[in-house]
TrEMBL record, chains A, B:
GO terms for biological process: iron-sulfur cluster assembly. This is SufD family Fe-S cluster assembly protein. Belongs to the iron-sulfur cluster assembly SufBD family. Residues 92-310 form the SUF system FeS cluster assembly SufBD core domain. Signal peptide: none annotated.
Length: 312, 312
């Protein structure tokens, strides 16, 4: 059963959607747009059904094992002040192949807080291929804090691959992310986290990966840039409870008077758990700067190029 | 003023000293042997004076800037049950070049706890070269826990180099180490930590390094082997408060049903702080095992060779 409920969107919403949905948001196929705490439009596709929760704000997204190379878009836009807490649950059947494009954009013009807490749970069956793309962004001249506190729980079934791409583009005053991931036998996890903070912004990123399954594996790459007086704290944790592989890599560029802490934790609780961690924090590469400036770029332009390529 | 108070040592004490003092303990030059909570012999040298504390157990070690390539030996042996807490303070004058050989050996035959807590503080002047070597070891058939909880505070002055070599050889049932190090301008720190646990032993190692000085640097290498059902937790922390370099490397071999956690923390609080961390936990190298076995070694012998070279 396919259902559709479209809506006419204002320019602010359209513009924010362009930034947070890099795959291009359209009111087609499977989608759900949450605007200022309300689902304003949604659509199902043949293999993806979205059902509004009865007991709390949020949706259940049911993805059939028949879904192959399909997309579902569930962006959130907040252009009014206030706090929005939403619970989204994904039920992904054995064999599904799907890309989920989420993200939250705040357009804040007011003087009180605008906050979105997206609490997501992914129940991934066997033999799936799931990609979850999440972009965070805030804009607007309001003095109110623009806050995003996502909580993401991911249960990856046997022989499934889960790819998590999370990016904080800019403008978010405060974020505290909680990620919890469990991997079954032969499950594979790929995480790419990109984060940029500026001015007085703060970002805390916690990620626990439990490698429970035999031959499960995780590859986590985190890249961040801290500017202004911003502060970042990373706490990725890989727990090897079985024969498994994990590789965690955190690289940060520090600028101005920013402060960055990286507190990775690797716990081997099985003789065949192999876990590697690498972290580096440092200033922008001077040699690259000099090289770019010989091409005629000024210092700011050269820095921008280096940061962009670092976060790519 | 040189003073000397020698003593005749029993065989147990002599044997333990051979293990914990790899430089060779002699009742010559500057030394102080603490046996079961009592200083039983000590000597001063021209440039190194040892003074018993009046207010609490322990000694003050005064090292003159005239000391060049000198040694001081301050081993501790416990062959009786009980708890011994001792406070040793080192005052190292500008320009001194000294090697301090400490260490604690427990010979436990009883059924109640034998514990030594050595609380050491190093006040290192400018332009010094200090090496501190500390070996921890326990033996004996007693069922009482053999416990070592050292606390080490090191203040490294301008242009000084401090080398810390700490080794837990074997037999220690429980250890909780606290290290706190501050580095002034151009101060250099080199740390090598080696740790082996077996059976139901537990080891916790915390190390905070505050890189306060301009061009201060730290190089920390930690290598450990966990066997049996033992548990190890490492928490090295490098805090860059100025233009500085730090490199922290933790490698562990896990065997049997041991568990090892590595929780390094790197905090960059200055744009010119460059901090790198690497950690790896894994099983013994299979290729090396196979190679050694083709040379005729059995599995246990091959493992022993690999572990020995890993901890060298």
């Amino acid at each position: 059963m396919e259902s559709n409920q479209t809506a006419k969107l204002d320019k602010v919403t359209e513009d924010v959607l362009k930034v947070i949905d890099s795959y291009g948001f359209k009111q087609e196929g499977a989608y759900n747009l949450r605007l200022n705490g309300m689902a304003v439009c949604h659509g199902d596709s043949r293999h993806i059904h979205i059902v509004k929760k009865e007991d709390k704000p949020g949706i259940d997204i049911h993805i059939s094992g028949e879904a192959k190379d399909e997309q579902v878009h569930i962006p959130v836009v907040m252009s009014q002040e206030g706090v929005d807490v939403v619970y989204n649950d994904f039920y992904i059947e054995d064999g599904a192949d799907v890309t989920i494009i989420a993200g939250c954009g705040i357009h804040g013009e007011g003087c009180s807080e605008t906050r979105h807490d997206g609490i997501h749970a992914f129940h991934v069956g066997k033999g799936c291929n799931v990609k979850y793309v999440e972009n965070h962004y805030a804009e607007g001249n309001g003095t109110g804090q623009k806050v995003l506190n996502p909580v993401t729980k991911i249960y990856v079934g046997e022989d499934s691959t889960f790819t998590l791409e999370t990016t904080q583009i800019k403008g978010v005053d405060s974020t505290e992310r909680e990620n919890y991931i469990e991997l079954a036998d032969n499950a594979k996890l790929f995480v790419t986290e990109k984060l940029m903070t500026d001015e007085g912004q703060t970002a805390i990123s916690n990620m626990d990966v439990e490698l429970n399954g035999e031959n499960s594996s995780a590859r986590i790459v985190s890249r961040s840039v801290g500017k202004g007086t911003s502060r970042q704290v990373f706490h990725p944790r890989a727990i090897g409870n079985n024969r498994c592989h994990a590789h965690v890599q955190c690289d940060s560029i520090i600028m101005d008077t920013a402060e960055i802490s990286s507190i990775p934790e690797i716990d081997a609780k099985h003789v065949d758990a192999q876990i590697i961690h690498e972290a580096a924090i440092g200033r922008i590469n001077d040699e690259q700067l000099v090289k770019l400036r010989t091409f005629g770029l000024n210092e700011e332009e050269a820095e921008a190029v280096i940061i962009e390529s670092f976060l790519k």
